[in-house]
Here is the input.
Amino acid sequence: MNYLQIALLSNALFSCLTGLSLILFHKTIAKWFGQQKTTIFWLIGIGLLFFSYSVFIQVRNPNPNAVFYIIIQDAIWVLASIAILWLKPFKITQIGYRIVAGIAAIVLIFDALQLLGICITTQ
Here is the structure.
């Protein structure tokens, strides 16, 4: 397994575990965010499961174009998280903001590792 494949597998596993957590523990997570409605956590969880599946597909035989699309999606996640942290468009708790920041930091690391991996692989 090469560097890119390890980065992709790590991203896929993290996204899958996060998605499952959002679905299975939606009530607890909603409380951490100071929310009563849990639908958004379900939706994000389902979206992350689909995303993780698309990343898992690339682990065995990475297609540079598909990996680049994954990198873009991760970058969008990080930028959206920064916008949420900066603009604070939603009324959420400080713990919620810390969770958003922590996940964004992890996704940024995956993004950088995947970008490095694709640069190493395509040389």
